[in-house]
Amino acid sequence: MKDQEKKEKKEKRPKKKRSLIGRIIVFLLAVLALAGLLAMAMSVLCSYVDPTKFVWLTFFGLMFWAILFFNLVVFALLLLLWSRKVWISVIALLVALPGIYKSFSTGVSQNGGELRVMSYNVLQFKDQYDEEKRRESVAYDMVNMIKEYQPDVLCLQEFSPFRSKISRKDCIVQYGEMMGLPYTYWHEKAHFGGNVIFSKYPLYALEEDIPFAKENEYGAVARVDAGPKGVFYVVNCHLTSFQLTRDELTVFSERNNNKEQMEEYGKSIVSKLVNAYKKRSQEVNEMLAHIPHDGRPILLCGDFNDTPLSYTYQQIHGAGFIDGFVKAGHGIGRTYAGKLPLLRIDYIWANEQIQPMSFKRIKYKGSDHFPVMLDFNVNHGL
Question: Which of 44, 101, 211, 344 is an S-S bond match for 290, by CB 3.0 to 4.6 Å?
Fold first, then answer.
């Protein structure tokens, strides 16, 4: 009887109404939650929209982590206020799940990879932390780092001669010998592009009638013959970058009261972003159309200059390639070492004939990128 009486008293007790200020706060939070939901939906959907058709959606993909953090904060505030409007933020977080899956890895690393590939944008051997450091010193320091991890195949982007009075060819050959990677491949003609492939195993150029074997600025491809470990293609790519200057990267990250300068840099940054997104859209479609399609295993490595929430990423994924980081990495896997935070723009992709075993991002300071590395097995070769 006492329990019944307590229950009846509780039901009769009037619910506390929010104050006017409380109702205003909840209303504003609900508006912010709706804005966050819309932004998150556009961030996830931008992967499926070609930037040449509608470029502005791509900016939401670039801001995925910021949008996710915004929605988490609004969700927490609505939850603390016990507002029913929290359902809006719950939907936003559910919408974010595909983006989280692409951007955050809980993959399991395995031992037993027979082969190792490393990809690294060396920034023309400039040390972003020490502008006075000579390129030759930067190049030699990178040799020591690379030798420590002993890759079987190495894909470098933005490679440039680091010694004076030495030809590009001799520089590449000498660099390979210093690393214990004597086989090299790059485009020798006008469109060098800075993409060089080094290998412990013999490298073979593609036939001239295969489109990707012709000169282009965004990548090079060679066939690797690793004997009993397998025969496979390795593609070394460097898609068009945003080409932002140091001043443009710092003007908004530091206190700056010069409105004219901020406006000038702002217009320049937006213009560069738009042009780069459109150019990469064309490049990724050309690349996927021109890579070898003869049934061999393929590794697709390089600096793609696009995040997992991008048209570039979705096109490669849709072509049947596996993101090595998602499969065998861990965490967010940031690869851009510059001032823009949480950007993963360097990838090692594998087709279904490659088995990723473990993925590692190497926290080596020098370039504005971190090296990435994949241990793998070739399932079968031709």
Answer: 211
